[in-house]
Design brief:
2 copies of one chain form a homodimer.
Chain A: E1 26-32, E2 42-47, E3 52-55, H1 60-71
Antiparallel strand pairs in A: 1-2, 2-3
Chain lengths: 72, 72
Amino acid sequence: AILEVNGNLNCRCVKTASDYISPKRYESIEIRPVGSTCRRTEIIIKLKPSGKVCVNPEAPWVKKLLKRIAST
Amino acid sequence: AILEVNGNLNCRCVKTASDYISPKRYESIEIRPVGSTCRRTEIIIKLKPSGKVCVNPEAPWVKKLLKRIAST
């Protein structure tokens, strides 16, 4: 994988997807806040039955998803 | 672990904590939306350097945390 040497060594996502993924396919949503070892927020969706995808925190549908979670 | 047989077989959290955990200690926040195999939303915080804790989605500080994530 492409190693980032500017202090982002522990980032999990090398690239992120912006295209919509239906909530029906989610097993879980993992949010990795900006931390010492990764300088950006990362959002990783685990899919049913398997697989993971890094999604772009700036994508409008991702922002809506997080808002909906916060309001339940 | 206590096995729940009312369709919650795949819930990860048997019980949840409501007391505040400082964001400095988070490695990640995992949200498991209500699904076919678990009838309740589960929020699992992975702690630095290790350890996991299930937190109560209804606890005020958890709701604030999710709102803050949604607004970044």
